[in-house]
Amino acid sequence: MAQPVESSLLLFLVLLSPLVASAGIAKLNSSSPLFGIEFPPFNTAVSDTGCDGKLVVAEEARDEQTQPASLSPSLKLQMTRRAAAAGWTRKDSFLDSAQKDAVRIETMHRRAAARAGGERAYSPRRALSERLVATVESGVAVGSGEYLMDVYVGTPPRRFQMIMDTGSDLNWLQCAPCLDCFEQRGPVFDPAASSSYRNVTCGDQRCGLVAPPEAPRACHRPGEDPCPYYYWYGDQSNTTGDLALESFTVNLTAPGASRRVDGVVFGCGHRNRGLFHGAAGLLGLGRGPLSFASQLRAVYGHTFSYCLVDHGSDVASKVVFGDDDALLLAHPRLNYTAFAPASSPADTFYYVQLKGVLVGGELLNISSDTWGVSKDGSGGTIIDSGTTLSYFAEPTYQVIRRAFMERMGRSYPLIRDFPVLNPCYNVSGVERPEVPELTLAFADGAVWDFPAENYFIRLDDDVMCLAVLGTPRSGMSIIGNFQQQNFHLVYDLKGNRLGFAPRRCAEV
């Protein structure tokens, strides 16, 4: 690969490394909790506990007045994160993550542009309705997300580790026959071995929610022929296969508890390429109708949330579908800001409406044009669980960078030519370096204040760097998962708003 491309990849992915935060700034919480997500009730009835529990799935009522009178209890799951390769230093892991982050961001830009250019949109179709909370394992650092959740698919259920990603919609697994697949842990999903597997036919309305392969098959028998799909993430990342229905079972945080959801729409991928190595597939949590979050809305409601622990922590994070967390809803510092209109060009993403950035309590001189989404899909700001660092489009990033350098002055020796991140400082012997405050201001008046450990990263005992990078002038800005650590984020899709509150995520 050409040197300029390498540099760009490193630049973009600086925030992705799961290991870079173990030696924190101002005492970065190296023992903080992991990453957690709760999902909302969306499309169907609920399942019983236990692996054999049934979930009756019903079509989501188009009219809100026909929604179920009551929703199921929230569902809580765990997710985990892959550790660094043996023998790797924090710097090695950081640079590797930066490369993957770069690919992810390029993918997002392309997807936003494609939506703006008229690529078919996805709209929610089915889902579940009760609160689900599971433990997610964070650790497979791949291009489209690094938080993993154990999902048992089929009948009898077989275990697969899937990447959880708020920046995409389609749920998919590598499937037999695997004609062109990446390496994964364990065997691929075999439809022939599951009694609950069903193809979505090419005449089914849900087939219209996915894009066909470049050489689409003719739909001769609408009620029998399978529905082929093609879903892309970047230049080399994509999945192609047949859209299908299957039973998904997830382990809950309570010992021995689980939930089974029947009729989940997913992609059975026979040709899959990209930076997904190690995982079995991807669990999409985007705004579109085919995402796992959307398909759970009828059962768990229109709210999901997650709480990410420190990157250096070995505690599992939680994903929760539902909105019955009384402690969170009563939190005195719970703030909400509106999502950008759902009609935004890239409706997969969760756009927020930023108005400005404050450093050291001072509003920076940034053009208002920076924050809007243009007709070609460029610009705007998204909140994303799959991108590590936060990114701001040029020249906004340079304004933020200069503001920190000016306010830091000669507090600590500046380190020149450090790879990827800038500025970096020598903080040898300083337990809690002092840095200017960082605040995001939203168009509706909400503000998000971050603790120092969420925007400065301590790579070792001596080096501390600003964990913010730039994207091309035409790119979007991204609030990544490093900035989201130890905040409980609530995705209220009915109220069209994002909630955030500081919280000890290990205790959620």
Automatic annotation (TrEMBL):
Record carries keyword Cytoplasm: no
InterPro entries reported in the protein's UniProt record: Aspartic_peptidase_A1, Pepsin-like_plant, PEPTIDASE_A1, Peptidase_aspartic_dom_sf, Plant_Aspart_Prot_A1, TAXi_C, TAXi_N
GO molecular function list: aspartic-type endopeptidase activity
Pfam family, one: TAXi_N
GO biological process annotation, one example: proteolysis
Region forming the signal peptide: 1-22
UniProt domain Peptidase A1: residue ranges: 147-501
Top-level taxon of origin: Eukaryota
Active site residues per record: 165, 384
Keywords, in A-Z order: Aspartyl protease, Glycoprotein, Hydrolase, Protease, Signal
UniProt KW Hydrolase keyword: yes
Family per record: Belongs to the peptidase A1 family.
Protein name: Peptidase A1 domain-containing protein
The organism of origin for this protein: Setaria italica (Foxtail millet)
